[in-house]
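Moderator note: this is an archived Q&A kept for reference. The question asked for a predicted structure of one protein chain; the sequence and the answer are reproduced below.
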Amino acid sequence: MADLIDELRRFDPGMEVRLAIQPRMPQDHGIGAVAEADGIVWIGDAGPRGYAPDEVRESLGWS
């Protein structure tokens, strides 16, 4: 979890966070509930919001 926290510290804390899913056609998903089970932290999916812009795929190295 420390790796994720360190990555997020690079950004303005007021920014919205979304999930990009599927490298070929990145879908934009909202962040849902966060929970712990069996020593693992799970980030829930709040559902699709559409498709992410092409620059997201490039920024994530999915091109």
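Archived answer notes: The CA atoms of residues 8 and 36 lie 19 Å apart.
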